[in-house]
Specification:
The protein is an alpha+beta fold and 283 residues long. 35% of the residues lie in helices and 27% in strands. It contains nine helices and twelve strands.
């Protein structure tokens, strides 16, 4: 299994973190847990199992997305925040008993209001491919808790990398900012609040982007010259975007086709750890 390798510049110590499919799965769990922490004062958890009547090793992902869209639309009408993460599993009992390789989906659903989740019958009408089972586990939405709970259906990291299925997990879209470490995320959220969800980031940098169509560039730069003349670079992003309390450290412009992208650096985090690449065998 691939690992990302980091080197501590002060101590020379090396740190190995999962990469590949399993690493992406763990990152999605982290983003989900962080999102819930900052956006759902109360949350409710449902474990949804979607099985197949006919044994198949693969299912079009559009079938799963149809179900999740049905649930999301139903909850949105009730003004409910909703996120999920799902994994595929080969049904071991079916394989052992009948020799049939049939996948099914385990979906962990997290939402912000009680008594609004659709029934198994309603979801089955959207699923159309087999049975639906719903349980309500008593689960705290923490990274390790979710990983242990939903991760048991995909095996350990080495087993997960060897799964012969396409798109072995899928998850709700969550703003990039929630992949930051707990300390860095709390710093950004404390200063910018919900507006931080608009930012882009890596693990060490946070920036804001403005996209401008080519035909509007002249108007855009006329405004820039006016605003810089009035108050200087520090207020530039605030005036253009309407966000408050933005301190622009750096600005860089890129062109993608007919769109110009201005990138405004918000924060760079200091770190003793340097990324060294990936390694197949960490030890």
């Amino acid at each position: 299994m691939k690992h990302r390798v980091f080197l501590n510049n002060k101590t020379g110590e090396k740190c190995y973190l999962p990469a590949g499919r399993y690493g992406n799965f763990l990152l999605s769990v982290k983003k989900l847990a962080n999102y819930v922490r900052y956006n759902m004062a109360k949350y409710y958890v449902v474990h949804l199992v979607l099985t197949l009547k006919e044994a198949k090793k693969e299912v079009d992902t559009r079938d799963l997305h149809r179900v999740m869209q049905f649930i999301a639309t139903r909850l949105k009408r009730q003004y409910v925040d909703f996120k999920y993460i799902s994994v595929k599993e080969i049904q071991k009992e079916r394989l052992d008993k009948y020799g049939e390789e049939a996948i099914h989906f385990h979906v962990l659903c997290i939402y912000s209001k009680p008594y609004v989740f659709p029934s198994a019958k309603e979801i089955a009408e959207s699923w159309k491919l087999g049975n639906v089972k719903i349980t309500a586990p008593k689960l705290r939405v923490k990274v390790q808790k979710i990983t242990n709970y939903i991760g048991k259906y995909i095996g350990k990291g080495y087993e997960y990398e060897q799964l012969e299925v396409k798109k072995s997990f899928t998850a709700s879209q969550v703003p990039q900012i929630y992949k930051l470490s707990e300390k860095r995320l709390s710093l950004i959220k404390a200063f910018y609040g919900a507006k931080a969800d608009l930012f882009k980031c890596t693990f060490t940098k946070v920036w804001a982007e403005l996209k401008i169509q080519r035909e509007r560039m002249r108007e855009y730069y006329q405004k820039i010259r006016k605003w810089v003349g009035e108050s200087g670079q520090i207020d530039l992003f605030e005036k253009i975007s309407g966000l408050d309390y933005i301190t622009v450290k750096e600005k860089r412009t890129e062109r993608i086709g007919d769109v110009f992208v201005d990138k405004f650096m918000i924060k760079k985090f200091e770190s003793d750890w340097a990324y060294m690449g990936t390694s197949e065998v960490p030890f």
